[in-house]
TrEMBL record:
Residues 13-202 form the Glycosyltransferase subfamily 4-like N-terminal domain. It comes from Roseobacter sinensis. This is Glycosyltransferase family 4 protein. Residues 209-367 form the Glycosyl transferase family domain. CDD domains: GT4_PimA-like (cd03801). Coiled coil: none annotated.
């Protein structure tokens, strides 16, 4: 089978991008032929473009226009389809750079669409209000009234939404990453969505936990990730466990503010910067707990599964897919998002009981291996490709019948 993979970004620096590259490797390991189409946008330095074909992308204010109407994406994809026509198109993400302009080109090809964020139903993709409470509104004028988007961004979001709805039928199968994400999409009129969680690749289990209580965070340093809540809760925990240490791996727009927030903790809080996967595994191997303190409804949260596969207990927010993946009391604990006191209590419980963390870590690894394996995910993916083929064939036939009837009349 020839599969064209489409993703906004074609560099290996984010969860969605790494997942798409892993999907490519998994498909090719089973004998399928793949190509990757993306924009050439660069969010971080030092990551080469790995797409087979790319279009123009931006990571500045011009992105507001390109994510709604990107003519270079249309032209480049048209050329790609002329030169290497696929059996199936697999879109992971297309509303941050490529724009809905690409959809008409796919009207005769089976399309599987994976939605890794809420971008299809929310202009900023987060379903999160400026005060960091979760948004329950349907996208529309309320997005501008709440200050979630600027007037200019709102106007372009309207264009994007109109184009998406105009060509949405091209998406034969749409999947989201969790049950909670599915409910959000259904509320917004996307009634035919399936849940396909991300998989996790096998990795070595941790050999031993650190001698002193250690909590780790890995991810983007942005406001929706709730790292400030973790830092404040950790500061309180240290009053009872002064030997505790917090490791923070990642970069992002909130890094300067977070470093300032943690300054009074001295060397107890260490910022490790962006780490490659192998370096991250080594740096976090001794952690008793991995924290996932998101204040928004994470569509999935790959770091949760990655920690479980390492055999690390997880403390996560009761939000989005995080609480789908964590079995509370078995593979870790869940705490109220944004609630510093609740995070302190749960963190203290785990950091004061090394044996409990070891037991939860072992249970988490078993769950990751049995429920979220790459092989199981690829099997499901191939089945969804076949479903997309069936739906596409019916769609194309119905369009042909409609055209013929109109012609006869």
């Amino acid at each position: 089978m020839r599969v064209l993979l489409i993703n906004d970004h074609g560099r290996a620096y984010g969860g969605a991008e790494l997942q798409m590259l892993a999907i490519r490797d998994s498909l090719e390991s089973r004998g399928h032929v793949t190509r990757l189409f993306s924009s050439d946008a660069k969010m971080m330095p030092g990551f080469p473009l790995v797409a087979d074909r790319s279009c123009h992308g931006r990571s500045d204010m011009a992105q507001v226009v390109l994510q709604s109407v990107n003519p270079t994406a249309w032209r480049a994809l048209r050329q790609e389809l002329r030169e290497d026509y696929p059996d199936v198109v697999h879109i992971r993400s297309f509303l941050w750079q490529l724009s809905p302009l690409i959809l008409p080109l796919l009207r005769d090809i089976p399309v599987l669409h994976q939605a890794p964020t809420y971008k299809e139903i929310c202009p900023n993709g987060l379903k999160l209000l400026p005060d960091r409470t979760n948004c329950t509104h349907l996208a529309g004028p309320i997005c501008r009234a709440t200050g979630c988007v600027s007037p200019r961004t709102y106007r372009m979001a309207q264009v994007q939404s109109w184009l998406l709805n105009r060509w949405r039928a091209v998406l034969d199968v749409t999947t989201v990453l969790s049950r909670r994400a599915a409910s959000r999409f259904v509320e917004s009129g996307w009634t035919d969505v399936e849940v396909l969680p991300n998989p996790v690749d096998d990795r070595a289990a941790v050999a031993a936990l650190a001698d002193h209580p250690t909590v780790a965070y890995c991810g983007r340093l942005s406001r929706e990730k709730g790292v400030d809540v973790l830092i404040d809760a950790f500061a309180r925990v240290r009053q009872q466990s002064p030997q505790a240490e917090l490791l923070i791996a990642g970069t992002g727009p909130e890094e300067v503010a977070l470093r300032a927030r943690a300054a009074d903790q001295g060397k107890a809080v260490r910022f490790l910067g962006h780490l490659a996967p192998d370096d991250m595994d080594r740096a976090l191997a001794g952690a008793w707990v991995q924290a996932v303190p998101s204040v928004w409804h994470e569509p999935f949260g790959n770091v949760t599964l990655e920690a479980m596969m390492r055999g690390t207990a997880v403390l996560g927010s009761d939000a989005g897919a995080i609480s789908d993946v964590i079995l509370h009391g078995t593979t870790g604990l869940v705490a109220s998002p944004g609630d510093v006191a609740d995070w302190q209590a749960n963190l203290q419980r785990m950091l004061s009981d090394k044996a409990l963390c070891i037991k939860m870590g072992q249970a988490g690894r078993h769950r990751a291996e049995t429920e979220y394996s790459r092989a199981r995910h690829t099997d499901r993916l191939l089945a969804l490709y076949e479903k997309a083929k069936t739906i596409c064939a019916a769609r194309v036939e119905a369009r042909a019948d409609h055209h013929n009837k109109g012609y006869i009349k």
